[in-house]
């Protein structure tokens, strides 16, 4: 046994990874495919989660990421009210150099070999066109193009769901679900963030944005010249009079440096894994900052890809994404009743739903 394989096995059987049902290590020498498919739970139905294509430093690192992401999808899908458990896949390698039709087809065959226990979709490093290729080998691929029976880009409903989370936050904190007159800072106005800005402006909010990409800023400011621009995220979180901070770019936005500097009373954004480490949710609560859990409010995308399995209907999906408002309010109520941060309350509700499903 090599050191690498020992590291993978050690990662697989660490108890704190969360008791996954199945982990599949995939390899196709002809195409160079090395992948991990992790199924955390099928209590609520077939596991659903995207495929990440990333140049991990080690196989053990790739396995650890797949396990963590799969577990997170179980919680996200449970709170989104979907008939799906959580799963995730990672393909090891640089998508810019390794990705090929042959590799994606080989990956599709591995997904198909699971017989529907795992349904895949897009994630970091994979796109709609990639899922179209994967779908040639399996019916269990979503996030496809409309021309191939899919729904296409899921960013529209992701942004809509985050907006519903913001409305719920406003209702809980200020007694009114409107964002009119509130100042909202959006960090990252790319695929999801620029749609979120449109919702906020339509609702009468004052918006401040930042992004590392100049073209993303221009897309917003050329359409809405009155939108203010902060130099960077550090400047944005310190903007005076900011009511809501919306991290919509990279994970880890809420950390030991950013939380003490926040001027906003609410954090609600589209980015995944916003809490840099355990304990940050308590730091937010101690500062009186209301945190809308990221995996709850950004579930519009997974709601959309799940609907593809039924034959995509945008209005049906939008109606389901609108329920993120009610789910977020329920989490805030549970947090207040139990005397815990909203992130912990969200976890409890998701775990309760999965436990009840297993007991049926």
UniProtKB/TrEMBL annotation:
<dbReference type="Pfam" id="PF00208">
    <property type="entry name" value="ELFV_dehydrog"/>
</dbReference>
<dbReference type="InterPro" id="IPR016211">
    <property type="entry name" value="Glu/Phe/Leu/Val/Trp_DH_bac/arc"/>
</dbReference>
<dbReference type="InterPro" id="IPR046346">
    <property type="entry name" value="Aminoacid_DH-like_N_sf"/>
</dbReference>
<dbReference type="Pfam" id="PF02812">
    <property type="entry name" value="ELFV_dehydrog_N"/>
</dbReference>
<dbReference type="InterPro" id="IPR006097">
    <property type="entry name" value="Glu/Leu/Phe/Val/Trp_DH_dimer"/>
</dbReference>
<keyword id="KW-0101">Branched-chain amino acid catabolism</keyword>
<dbReference type="InterPro" id="IPR033524">
    <property type="entry name" value="Glu/Leu/Phe/Val_DH_AS"/>
</dbReference>
<keyword id="KW-0520">NAD</keyword>
<dbReference type="InterPro" id="IPR006096">
    <property type="entry name" value="Glu/Leu/Phe/Val/Trp_DH_C"/>
</dbReference>
<protein>
    <recommendedName>
        <fullName>Valine dehydrogenase</fullName>
        <ecNumber>1.4.1.23</ecNumber>
    </recommendedName>
</protein>
<comment type="subunit">
    <text>Homodimer.</text>
</comment>
<comment type="pathway">
    <text>Amino-acid degradation; L-valine degradation.</text>
</comment>
<feature type="domain" description="Glutamate/phenylalanine/leucine/valine/L-tryptophan dehydrogenase C-terminal">
    <location>
        <begin position="152"/>
        <end position="359"/>
    </location>
</feature>
<keyword id="KW-0560">Oxidoreductase</keyword>
<dbReference type="InterPro" id="IPR036291">
    <property type="entry name" value="NAD(P)-bd_dom_sf"/>
</dbReference>
<comment type="similarity">
    <text>Belongs to the Glu/Leu/Phe/Val dehydrogenases family.</text>
</comment>
<dbReference type="InterPro" id="IPR006095">
    <property type="entry name" value="Glu/Leu/Phe/Val/Trp_DH"/>
</dbReference>
